[in-house]
Specification:
Blueprint lengths: L6 H5 L7 H13 E6 L2 E6 L2
Antiparallel strand pairs: 1-2
Amino acid sequence: MAKIYSKKALASQNLKPKKEVVSFILNYSQALTVVKVNEKSFEIIAN
């Protein structure tokens, strides 16, 4: 059972996001605006 959860298996994963995912996250972050009023913050997405 201990061999299944070894640290080597977790470290050896190669994670590469698709171009579509990276593009979506970049576009979302550029459209997102956070406005703080007193102690509250509002998130506005300009599309």
